[in-house]
TrEMBL record:
F-actin-capping proteins bind in a Ca(2+)-independent manner to the fast growing ends of actin filaments (barbed end) thereby blocking the exchange of subunits at these ends. Unlike other capping proteins (such as gelsolin and severin), these proteins do not sever actin filaments. This is F-actin-capping protein subunit beta. Keywords: Actin capping, Actin-binding, Cytoplasm, Cytoskeleton. GO terms for biological process: actin cortical patch organization; barbed-end actin filament capping; filamentous growth; mating projection actin fusion focus assembly; mitotic actomyosin contractile ring assembly; mitotic actomyosin contractile ring contraction.
Length: 281
């Protein structure tokens, strides 16, 4: 696969309707199967919901908790549908799994306070090149993803999907760690009682953040990531409000007016006379 073809596919996806990004991505992968692996790992799509058979809780599915056609539940640490050879499937180490349980519990509280509903899931995995498992003192790095989804359907329909992929790398020189987070917000809103009154607003926003923060142990890494995610989502919400809602309001304001045609024509004539008078000065 050439780099030009890959970049062209990404450029095409940016120009197509964001509301149907999953459909467009599937069609491109069918046209050129060689692009599938790279596109599926680099293009964010709206999150899907799964049910954990053991706990009965819902969880979010993405490429980071997938093995084949099965997805790992953060509540039971099991794959659904069950895998034939689960021993070869990716699982977090024992200590990292304990941190994953703590992270899911913490972000579940965050989701309830900020979103008043929805679903959240956190997945962690080991990244140490020497194959060392994460320890409780937090001196070995790891990576993970925080997923949040909120859907609305009360005379309106829409969804909010936030995907925060992060990496934690403790510094050898002292009690500080480098936190790198790539955050993507996928927004989809629609309102209108009939098809001719339907207003749709869809898009996504991606930002990268890097910080060096002090840590004490493994749990403090989760706390630092949580604080960063909270700050990032607040900033991205404000940006979405300015870019999407502010611009849409301006466009609608220019298209629709409460003044009559005669009043607008009169104002236009006065403006033309004023401009002509200034030219004659």
């Amino acid at each position: 696969m050439s780099q030009e073809v890959y970049e062209a596919a990404l450029d095409l996806l940016r120009r197509l309707d964001a509301k149907n990004i999953s459909k467009h991505l599937t069609n491109i992968c069918k046209l050129n199967p060689d692009l599938a692996e790279d596109l599926l790992s680099s293009v964010d799509v709206p999150l899907t919901t799964k049910q954990c058979a053991e706990s009965g809780k819902q969880y979010l599915a993405c490429d980071y908790n997938r093995d084949g056609d099965s997805y790992r539940s953060p509540w039971s640490n099991k794959y659904y549908p069950a895998l034939e050879d689960e021993e070869d499937a990716p699982f977090p180490s024992k200590t990292l799994r304990e941190a994953e349980i703590f992270a899911n519990s913490s972000f579940d509280v965050y989701r309830d306070l900020y979103f008043e509903g929805g679903i959240s899931s956190v997945y962690l995995w080991d990244i140490d090149e020497d194959g060392n498992d994460v320890s409780k003192d937090g001196k070995i790095g790891f990576a993970g993803v925080v997923l949040i989804k909120k859907e609305v359907d009360a005379g309106k329909s829409g969804s909010w999907d936030s995907i925060h992929v992060f990496e934690v790398q403790p510094n050898e020189s002292g009690p500080y760690a480098t936190y790198r987070i790539t955050s993507t917000i996928i927004l989809d809103l629609s309102a209108g009682k009939s098809e001719d009154q339907l207003l749709e607003l869809s898009g996504n926003l991606t930002r990268q953040t890097e910080k060096d923060l002090k840590y004490q142990d493994l749990s403090s890494h989760i706390s630092n990531v949580g604080s960063m995610v909270e700050d990032i989502e607040s900033k991205q919400r404000n940006m979405l409000q300015e870019v999407y809602f502010g611009k849409t309001k301006d466009v609608i304001g220019d298209l629709r007016t409460t003044k009559g045609i005669s009043s607008l024509k009169e104002e236009s004539e006065k403006q033309s006379e004023l401009i002509q008078g200034m030219r004659n000065l």
